[in-house]
Amino acid sequence: MRDLPDDSDDEEDQAPAVQFAGDYFGTYQEEDFDMDQNAEPADPNDSENLDEDEMPKLQEVLFSDSESEDEGEDDFDGHWEPNVPALDFEHLPGVAKGAGVAGIAAAAANEHDEATKVPTPAERAAGEEQVRQRPIIVEFTDGDAGAPLRRGEPGYESYKAKLGDPDNVWAPFTSKLEWELAQWAKLRGPGSTAFTDLLKIGGITERLGLSYKNSRELNNIIDSKIPGRPKFKRKEVIVGGEAYDVYFRDILECVRALYGDPEFAAHLKVAPERHYADEDQTIRLYHDMHTGKWWWATQRELEKRRKGATVIPIIISSDKTLLTLFRNRTAYPVYLTIGNIPKDIRRKPSRQAQILLAYLPTSKLEHITVKASRRRILTNLFHTCMAKILEPLKGAGSEGMVVVSGDGVARRGHPILAAYVGDYPEQLLVGCVKNMDCPQCPEAAKNLGDAPVAGEPEKFRDLNAILDALAAFDEDPAEFVKKCKAAGIKPVIHPFWEGLPFVDIYKSITPDVLHQLYQGVMKHLKAWIIEAFGAAEIDARCRRLPPNHNIRNFMNGISHISRVTGQEHDQMCRFLLGIIIDIPLPKNLNSGRLIRSVRALLDFLYLSQYPVHSTETLAQQDDALARFHENKGIFIDLGIRTNFNLPKLHFLRHYSLGTKRFGTTDNFNTETTERLHIDFAKDAYRATNHKDEYPQMTRWLERKEKILLHAKFIRWRELGQPSTPSVPPGIEFDRTLKMTLHPTRESVPFDKLIQDYGAQFFRDALARFVVSTNHPEYSARQIETYSANLAMPFRRVPVYHKIKWVTEHLPDATIDSVHATPVTKNTRGKPVPGRFDTVLVNLGTGKETGVDGYRVGQLILVPRVDQVFYESVTIEYSAGKFVHLLDLNADKFLRLVDLKPAGFFAGTVKALSVPVLTNDRMDRILAACTGARILTFVPYDLRLRLFDIPALDRLPPLRRLIMPLKLVLISFLATAKSTSITHLDLRPPFLNEDNGGLSTNVLRYFPRLTNLAVNLLDPVAARAVCASCPDLRVLVITPTTVLEEYSFDPRIVFIEGEIWQRDAAHIGLPDFWTRAESIVDERRALLGAAIQSS
């Protein structure tokens, strides 16, 4: 009996050839190992047994990042759609005459009210909110999990020592150029022969200073001087007199390579944790593998034996794949990764967190003529090879081995097979289970379609009984066959997992979203829907769907597509429910049960892919499955199905427990395996001469891995050898708006906005936005009044045709986008219809889920108002006239001056804030704004002075002047521009700038001065200023002594704290002076009242 950790109650070089032990039992009979004779025969159209080479369904394939995405048109005749028979709404049960679509939907919803209650949006939102927040973390304390043994040299330091030349950043290459050329040749360049021909061109190697002259010399450098991951070994396996090669690596060295990669050091998980969504620790969270129950239970078992263990969960995945489109050349790669690396890193091929462990034999053993014998020998061949590859895990898993992470910390690691990832045929092969059976539980094939019983614990295959049956082979082969049949498995000789410690292979088989859901259940659901409603109606509705980022338009329908990929099934699932919601069923059957069953499976599909689960979201997932089983009888009533004994549908009941054991499904999705085939099999095969390819593929892969790892090392050296960042990937997933660098159309006139985009009220809407943004205190009526008189200083705007959102969780994936594209013409001159997407507009109260607080709208325009206007247009209301204040970026503004007609800004810019730049640019700015009455000089360099600026003479009489005291020169005041100034602010740019003594000689140039602001001013100087300005109403100062010494004059107002702001929206506005004047008025009123009372 095997001692296994119990997580049910957890809260949670070439070796000599060996003779293959295979065809041991002589002649076979079909009934010895074929499927259950009572099981329903597999439908050839169901493809349950197909082992297809699915194209990857990764996010970067699903979503295009192109600005021109979806902007083409489908070239079809608008009248080609066949006539669809009229639908009889009138005789449907529960539908009133003339009720239409709404009545049908209501009738469908009302039927069978006793059905399982569908979670409300509020309930769904509550569950999703739990997984968005940072968790409460409970660490494993029952022992010394992950305890370090010693600290040594970090990974990159030891790597540098192996290169032998610590002073040369590019070692073993002599220069940066030589390294980058080698990197290009091995990762991006042509074949070896072409690269050698390039280097043979006269003078190339000498001029570039290369130490290698051909591909062979470059390969020698890479092979002998650059450290890398473990090398491949070759072992011969002889079957029926035929020899087959298996190429594999030392699995323990592979584990050390992954665990010791310096790029992963800061992110490694060395101990299990329990994550909760609440302080009371009642709502458990699951995401990465260390949050699951398996790791906690295994850690607890190891700590009982010997404290200080570090669990290293081994994740194995395997899958056959085609290498060529013709000739049926195949490969059988086996991949390895470890659960200590977070899933966000593991599933990115660019991070090299998955390693190719082996290439298994792919022969069909056609020299064995008996089909039954051949199938059994193929199974035994697989297990024999895998047993040899995984044999080192037996000792290391029990006793442990020293592993060193990339930061130099050594621990006692226990590599234990935790999860096996594969599609359905692979799961059957690994578990030695017959076709049409569940690979996890002993449920009979005829009962696979039954609904799970609420509250009943999950049943798994009896591992101890299976191990007893397998042990009988060495004693009595005949009895061995009988015991295997009684245990519900095929008679396989010593499966690879038989002696592995802490392994229950049936619990290690993980959910498979790609093949079980998209290529399994959803494929069946689509076929059932088409049969229920008719292919003509379903295809017609697919053609009528409006364009949308998240929906692919199948213009030829979906009923006739053959060999549908997982990606295409995913795209179909996005609109499947929407197109059937109001279609009546034949036989006057109400469609309520069918709609509920479809929704239930779609709910399960999307819930199962949550990157973080809580106990409540898992309950919602189980509830969705229960709702399907409760309503699935409609398909039997329609004659579409006689039963639901489908292994992939049955396996859905195991998803929740799988998540609790190992974390969410994105830890083990076979999409990653499909994507790895490209890098580790297909590209490797293309790099060979297609003869005796496996030795070439393994050498090519070893060199590629060395180059990729060396590139990371060099990047580390170039950055100054920084320590690895210690911030691990989080579990918060926020959307980020992302726009293209340049707009689609650079300059669109206002009239074209109306003509092409239908934006009739753009100018009015923009005016209201400017007023309300700069004056949020205005009422709606004031905004309407002020915006009606706002003069726009431009008549054209740049326009985007697309908005998109990305997420840091998947930075290369566009998770949503909307389009606003007018009618255009394609390359053949034919018109392409415009596209203006429907959107939900958040009114300010909308939440992450639900539609409350949203309004449906149509996006017709995405303009960009240039920063020089958008950020700086400010409204000032004075004496019934509106003026504009522009805080200018000088270079941008001068470019606009060159583009606009002469005098364009003279009538619009009434207030001007400019930096003190070179005199020629100052002169050009002032010459363009001859109507400015308020002038603010913002000095970037106090050594500059205002003089010799001819444009000053062309300005009209100024009313207000804002400038530092140091810039007030007699040469400027002598221009007579100061005689009309009433408001003078000498404070900028620094609050505590020493005024150097404000001379009353300066003030005599401002005879009409009523308001004055200066920085530091002592009482003596303040008294002199008040005396020299007879019309002065307000003197704003920062005091230099106690306030009482300034009490001689009520016109003096004190400003304590920072008041100078460089944002022109706050410079020189009436509000500043109004506040100061109100203080003075209050003082005088109090003084008058005091005099009167006395």
TrEMBL record:
Region span, Disordered: 1-80
A Pfam family of this chain: Plavaka
InterPro entries xrefs: Plavaka (IPR041078)
Compositionally biased region (Acidic residues): 1-14, 29-54, 66-76
Protein name: Uncharacterized protein
Organism of derivation: Mycena metata
The organism's taxonomic lineage, starting at the top: Eukaryota, Fungi, Dikarya, Basidiomycota, Agaricomycotina
